[in-house]
Amino acid sequence: MTEILSDTHESEERPLRRPEAPASTTLHGELVAALRDYIVEGSLADGARVPERLLCERFGISRTPLREALKVLAAEGLIELLPNRGARVRVFSAEDLHELFDVMGGLEALAGRLACERIGDAEVAEIERVHHEMYRHYLRRDLHGYFQCNQEIHGMIVAAAGNATLRATYDSLAGRIRRVRYAANLDKQRDRWGEAMREHEAILDALRRRAGSELSDVLFQHLRNKRKAALRQAEPAEIPE
Amino acid sequence: MTEILSDTHESEERPLRRPEAPASTTLHGELVAALRDYIVEGSLADGARVPERLLCERFGISRTPLREALKVLAAEGLIELLPNRGARVRVFSAEDLHELFDVMGGLEALAGRLACERIGDAEVAEIERVHHEMYRHYLRRDLHGYFQCNQEIHGMIVAAAGNATLRATYDSLAGRIRRVRYAANLDKQRDRWGEAMREHEAILDALRRRAGSELSDVLFQHLRNKRKAALRQAEPAEIPE
DNA sequence: AAAGCAAAAAATGAATGCAAAATCTCACCC
DNA sequence: GGGTGAGATTTTGCATTCATTTTTTGCTTT
């Protein structure tokens, strides 16, 4: 075994212990989060083997907690576990992404419906504020800023639904496409930009009127169009690093 | 260990590349399924500790794969993992169930919408068949038969959506309420029965017309009413075994 | 006698060890 | 020269072991 640089000189040091957050002090839990980020952010190639030993050294832990984390990530759908053949970064086919976008659309449609039932004027105003900020980015052709506001608005709608189960489900699925989203959305979508902006107007309009069912429809269609734009060019292209 | 026949001197057996069959070699995977059933079917009380050692003996395995399975089940939301305090069967509060029903409603709404896009007449006819069977159960006041048909119809709609990601998400969440559903739905819901039957008529009607958006609304409302009926009496009652 | 504290016992979390399977290497045979 | 197969190496899956942490139990003190 190669020597690992382990600075365990001061044996009485608190190991990652935070007096503020005793619930999240699960080494395993943090490991899952760390690994998830590691994979989502593309540190491993599509379909690549997940090297247990390497990651053990990378994170300074033994195989047991790592394998537990891999099981969880497999349950989340980020990796695949092949019997006796190790873990691989899951490759999302065009069909997978197709499905994923639809489910995200369904969840956002639900979020919009629920949000209309309980959202207050202040929250609507807050979303409007971000919407207008997004519009300014649109006018300036600042795609990055636009996209960030866009994400924020959708996140705010999900948050306004006030449903933690929905939030968790949404986040879990969002994690799967984040890998793709990095590369997919920032280039060729300029022609759809105006259309998306109009759709966002409709979203806000339905939200203002608390028209839940209508907002549900608009959001689902919005995601559909987003999917069309995203998958049109995600298919042939490879993810650049 | 047991003796293995390793006399491959002359019999040139093909190494059986990938006959597509032996995917069940995952002891761990089967363990997850077994444990999930074990918990879902109520073999452990609400909020009870999940006794590691006992289950190890129960399934004849060591703690390592069991703990991996527990991590997965925790990710699925069936149990809770408290740091240094073991696993507990997750207790679903009224609020949790409230949320869960809404998300299920959103997913069914999505399923209905997608189903309308791709379902064929034959499949609609098949759903109609089960619907009429359900109606016969309704006329006979056969609550059990009715409920089974009911479940089947909802399952068929999800299947007709043709979206594996949706199916997996739906099943995962359904697993959480199955524990509750066992006890919650079979008794006091008789007063809602007629209403539910009418809603199912509307569901089928919208499906026949392939009115996706409308079916989406009807399904969500249907789940909402189901929730109201289920939670009205699930709150005070305890789960009988 | 009840409350509090300390030590034992049990359980949890992680590391290591070990057998089986898969992968790789390379000499061998056609 | 190319395919083949036996052995070596790596990797995977699970069991066992070890160090903490929690919980229980019994004893002491007021």
Automatic annotation (TrEMBL), chains A, B:
GO MF annotations in UniProt: DNA binding; DNA-binding transcription factor activity
Transmembrane intervals: none
Disordered: annotated span: 1-23
Gene3D superfamilies reported for this sequence: GntR ligand-binding domain-like, Winged helix-like DNA-binding domain superfamily/Winged helix DNA-binding domain
Protein's name according to its UniProt entry: DNA-binding transcriptional regulator, GntR family
Record-annotated HTH gntR-type domain positions: 25-92
Keyword vocabulary terms for this entry: DNA-binding, Transcription, Transcription regulation
Domain of life: Bacteria
SMART domains tied to this protein: FCD, HTH_GNTR
Biased composition (Basic and acidic residues): 1-20
